[in-house]
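Dear Dr. V.,

Thank you for agreeing to look over these. As mentioned in my earlier message, I'm a first-year student in the group and I'm still getting used to reading structure tokens, so any feedback on how I've presented them would be very welcome. I ran two proteins. I've put each sequence directly above its structure. The first is here:
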Amino acid sequence: MATQGRGRDAQLAFGETLMVIMVLVFLIGIGMVFYYSASRSSLNTELQHREDVQAVLLAQRVLSMPEVACDRYAGGSCIDSLKLAALARMLGPGAGHDAAAWTTYYGRFAEAAITVRYLTGAQAGQRLPLYDATPKDPGNFTAQQQFIFTTIYDPVADEQDLAYLNVTRYARRQTG
């Protein structure tokens, strides 16, 4: 009879050990799922932050282009309206389009859309599309917009107008 008690005790101990192992595996599984979701959320937040920073850098790159900077105006940084219009003709579709210039600016801006909107002056309310490389399949891209206010200097009329640049940067959507 003593051997039956030991066998039953051994089975009971084995069952308890098995249950402890199952509970530990279950807890480890829950911990892994929690860790994965937390790290994925953190990664998505980091990617969003980087996309925002890249959009701001692109907007600053547009404002600092010497191709459109004012030459003689002493009031600080501004954009020359005549140079801006000439650049828009070179990069836009139509008669003034320059393929070599488009390739150069595509290297600087990649998938983006840049539009200038005048707020004051004779051109108030008008939009000037400067650069447009909107992706052909926008569903696979995320869009980050930045609005930057600047002054547009008209050297012919010797006037300044307030405007803003709408800079939209497209980044390929992360899968997974």
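The second protein is here, in the same arrangement:
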Amino acid sequence: MGWFLYVVSIVFVVIGAVLILYTDSFRTWLGSVLDKRSIRPLGVIPLIFGILMIISAAWSEVFWLILILGVLILAKGIYLVFGSREHIDRATAWWFGNASDRLHRFCGLILVILGATILSWVG
């Protein structure tokens, strides 16, 4: 499962860099993609991703970081699958409509840092 951590770290760095450099374009593109689909079926992706992160925590030098990230991602997936449709719609509308560019860039920076950290700690 070490390969999964390598893939996750590279994906985090790439998405974070795109979010920092092309904030408006990425936000409108992702918003339009998610607008055409229901969020609830897509919640299965974070569920699976979180479970794989929890399983692959043993292959990292810092078990607790990967475990916490896996639990947080799993919680997001549970919320997207079982949460109230009204709350999910309100949260996605805020994220794609009202959240500032600074917040999106800050989240991109966090993704880049997390990706680099995971990459450096894969055992």
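From my reading of the second output: The mean pLDDT is 90. Residues 97 and 105 are 15 Å apart (CA to CA). Does that match how you would interpret it?

Kind regards,
E.
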